Amino acid sequence: MTPFTLFAPAKINLALHVLGRRADGYHDLDSIVAFADVGDTLTFTPAPAFAITASGPFAHALPVSADNIIAKAHAKISDIAAAHGKSLPPIAVHLVKNLPVASGIGGGSANAAAAMRGFLRLAGIDRIDDEIMAAALALGADVPVCLVGKPCRMRGVGERIAPLEHFKPRHAVLVNPGVVLSTPAVFGRLGLSPGQVHGAPIENTIDSATWRNDLMVPATAIAPAIGDVITALRHLHPSPQSGEGGEPQRAGGKGNKAPLIGMSGSGATCFRMIDNEAEARHLISEIARSHPDWWTAQTILS
Questions:
Q1: Could you tell me how many helices (H) and strands (E) the chain has, helices first?
Q2: What is the tens place of the pLDDT at every residue in 147-157?
Q3: H helices of the chain, where?
Q4: Which residues are catalytic?
Q5: Angle at 135 between CA 67 and CA 196, to 5 degrees
Q6: What is the pLDDT of residues 170-203, one digit of tens each?
Q7: What's the N-to-C CA distance of the chain in angstroms?
Q8: What local confidence, expressed as pLDDT, does residue 67 receive?
Q9: Phi/psi of residue 44, each to 5°?
Q10: What is the CA radius of gyration of the chain?
Q11: Which residue segments constitute the domains of the chain, with CATH numbers given?
């Protein structure tokens, strides 16, 4: 086989409503998900035996190979392939880890989804059916939507996915203060008992004024730096060369249009929607000047 590389884009929750906690302990969610044009890459190369290597700015934060979600994806697809009379050739996967780990933008889930696509290709399986989506969900709640890889409304624990055909690409900036957050810890801080109802579902998948992230308060209680990022994003001003309209924000001021600002997933990465590329560059420059230790990225969400 010829080596090939797949892109694993960052997943951004533009809205994440927690509807309640189910009797089985899982949380019911309603989320608007889009994908950035920044992310990790996975390269697949023939090898004597399956192996995973990693490089990049955040490779040091990855778990050991045996616990890596790419290894788990390999096991899942190997089992599916075997059940259909197929097999995976021995392969080495090299991950370039550009995204911060445990940061609310689905880096691990995106890696798992890209790995699944690569392994399916190697096994000669060209479909993504219910069996494969179930395997994706078993790897993690965000893996199925990352496998779909386009703007979606995601509900349930992550298994009910509906593409948003009306979603238009938008410029955005992403900011992470360098804080690692545990998703179970954030949900635990939310403090819902099994069977307890929490918030209302998304009212409108077009009007962002109805969107919220119910995990922002518990995440900020664990990592106050998230509040610092949100404050910084709110106080950034457009450059004199170009205005910024944006979309109305729920907490926006008296009839004025404010940019959509929020936290993705369980944090700590936050975002601000931007009207154009020049504005994004300006805001990234401002953040880098005032907070050089924060991770930032200019992106287009689509």
A1: 8, 10
A2: 999 999 999 99
A3: 69-83, 107-123, 130-139, 143-148, 183-190, 216-222, 225-235, 277-290
A4: 11, 142
A5: 90
A6: 999 999 999 999 999 999 999 999 999 999 999 9
A7: 31
A8: 76
A9: -105, 125
A10: 19
A11: 4-163 (3.30.230.10), 170-301 (3.30.70.890)
Does residue 278 register a pLDDT over 60?
Answer: yes
Which residues does 46 contact at the CB level (< 8 Å), separation at least 6?
A: 1, 3, 89, 90, 91, 92
pLDDT tens figures, 20-70? 999 999 999 999 999 999 999 999 999 999 999 999 999 998 876 667 999
**Distance between CA atoms of 121 and 214, rounded to whole angstroms?**
37
Q: pTM of the prediction?
A: 0.92
Per-position DSSP letters for 132-187, written without gaps between them: HHHHHHHH-TTHHHHHH-S-EEEEETTTEEEE-TTPPPEEEEEEE-S----HHHHH
Q: Token pair 């998948």 is at which residue?
A: 205
Which tokens is 136 given?
């994706």
Distance of alpha carbon 163 from alpha carbon 48, whole angstroms: 39
Torsion of CA 270, 274, 279, 281, to 10 degrees: 40
